Amino acid sequence: MRSCGPHRCTPLSDGSIRVIHSILKTSLNRAVRWKWIAVNPISFVDPPPIPPPDPSPPSPEEVATILTEAFKDPDWGALVWLAMVAGARRGEFSALRWADLDLDRVTLTVGRSIGQIGGRSWEKDTKTHQRRRISLDAATVQLLDDHRSRCTARCTALGIGLDADAYVFSLDPDNSTPLRPGTITQRYGRMAKALGLDTHFHALRHYSATELIAAGVDPRTVAGRLGHGGGGATTLRVYSAWVPESDRKAAETIAARMPAPPRPAPGM
């Protein structure tokens, strides 16, 4: 299938075809129910198969390199760090407002996202249409507090205050407009290329998930932080390769808490 504009005709991605297939199938199923048509013709057409999940998180060594480079700009470093520890989607970071951060209760509320097509962007619900709260560690709270102080100082220089509804990440000195998802992707891509790394911004979400699973955090909790549906089923499907590593750590943990096994007496 191709998408044709006034100047070019480009093939649609498999993901776009699956979305279109789903919309048409749902719409025509309704037409069958209303007896407008006898059968749904889309039922005879198979969409492209969904490829098996293959998350590719950066290694701990690559993460250290990425953070060292990112923090040359503290605002950008704060975003990259938060992506690693919170595991949210790029559009969710774009939509994040200061009112969504409760640094006293060390929580971050994710309740909206920024969508973007070309140069057009808009605010929308999260992918699962649900709000979620993510707990933050002390180091992340301090980084965000420092980031807020920088934003406040820039607003003060303009003779205004930092509004609670201002965006946490923005290119504007008063944080009045969000940092677009495409801008995040492009800047991260340029940084990774300069560092000689074959990675992308979404891989930070994979990094957050795999590190938590490898540390023994249960998949349901990881799913809650990532905003996965299915009570952890999606998380297990995507990150199943990291579950055995988590289980090995569980074995080592229980062994470390057990007393030494009795030794049989000589000759027995």
In short:
The chain is mainly alpha-helical and 268 residues long. It has helices spanning 14-33, 60-70, 74-86, 90-95, 138-157, 181-194, 202-214, 219-226, 233-239, 243-257, and strands at residues 2-4, 9-11, 101-102, 107-110, 113-117, 120-124, 132-135.
Walk me through what this model shows.
With 268 residues, the protein is mainly alpha-helical. It is 47% helix and 10% strand. It contains 10 helices and 7 strands. The protein has a 3-stranded antiparallel β-sheet, with no helix packed on it. A hairpin with a 2-residue loop joins strand 5 and strand 6 (120-124). The N and C termini lie far apart (75 Å). The mean pLDDT is 88.
Give the topology.
Blueprint: E1 2-4, E2 9-11, H1 14-33, H2 60-70, H3 74-86, H4 90-95, E3 101-102, E4 107-110, E5 113-117, E6 120-124, E7 132-135, H5 138-157, H6 181-194, H7 202-214, H8 219-226, H9 233-239, H10 243-257
Helix pairs in contact: 2-3, 3-5, 3-7, 7-8, 8-9
